[in-house]
Amino acid sequence: MNALKVESRRYFAALGTHIGLLRKERGMTQSELARALGVSQQAVFAYESGERRISVLLLSKLAAVLHTSVESLIGMAPLKRVPNRRLSPRAARHAQRLQALSKTQQRFVVRIIDVLETSNTTKH
Question: Is 47 exposed, middle or buried (0-12, 13-18, 19+ CB in 10 A)?
Fold first, then answer.
């Protein structure tokens, strides 16, 4: 195996680890990230384990979903850290109520939140 191939594998393994850490910091599951990116959960697993290369087209979408820059994502800029905040008692109650819903209802509620969040960020 040539040196470039070895270096490429190392890079994508490190990038995948970085993506997994960012995803977990944001409190997302692989399935949620997959849904946001329009890929399968298996694809996210392969990206995070370094088994699959991430296309340039997917990088910008991934950065947006993870609320970071492409530069930070690929390791060319300092990482923007999102503080790990605990849920307030009210938010914890809402989370419990959400968990009590069926999976279909949960997806519906999450989609509503996504739409509100997207419309809120486009206004600023």
Answer: buried
